[in-house]
């Protein structure tokens, strides 16, 4: 079942990458990066469940915190127009 979920992440990643490269503006690209972060967290979580390794969950948590901080900082950058 976990392998099926891992395979389902592949077409989703292509759609997100398409939005990143074809996005009409910077906001769409930031949302695509945020979606890629969420996709990476899902991938790490599924691999942790499949392999039974807890360290992947720690990496996913750090990845989530860095992704959240990056989106907040880029949002402030877009808001100020600097």
UniProtKB/TrEMBL annotation:
The protein's GO terms of the molecular function aspect are: sodium:proton antiporter activity
Q: Where are the transmembrane segments?
A: 30-49, 56-78
Q: Name one GO cellular component term.
A: plasma membrane
For this UniProt record, the keywords arranged alphabetically read as follows: Cell membrane, Membrane, Transmembrane, Transmembrane helix, Transport
Q: Where in the cell is it found?
A: Cell membrane
What membrane topology is given?
Multi-pass membrane protein
What family is it from? Belongs to the CPA3 antiporters (TC 2.A.63) subunit F family.
What is the protein name stated in its UniProt record? Answer: Cation:proton antiporter
Q: Which organism is it from?
A: Thiocapsa imhoffii
Q: What is the lineage of its organism?
A: Bacteria, Pseudomonadati, Pseudomonadota, Gammaproteobacteria, Chromatiales
């Amino acid at each position: 079942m976990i392998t099926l979920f891992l395979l389902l992440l592949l077409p989703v990643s292509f759609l997100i990458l398409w939005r990143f490269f074809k996005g009409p503006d910077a906001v769409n690209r930031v949302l695509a990066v945020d979606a890629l972060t969420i996709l990476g967290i899902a991938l790490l979580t599924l691999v942790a469940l499949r392999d039974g390794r807890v360290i992947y969950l720690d990496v996913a948590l750090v990845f989530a915190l860095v992704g959240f901080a990056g989106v907040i900082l880029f949002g402030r950058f877009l808001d100020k127009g600097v």
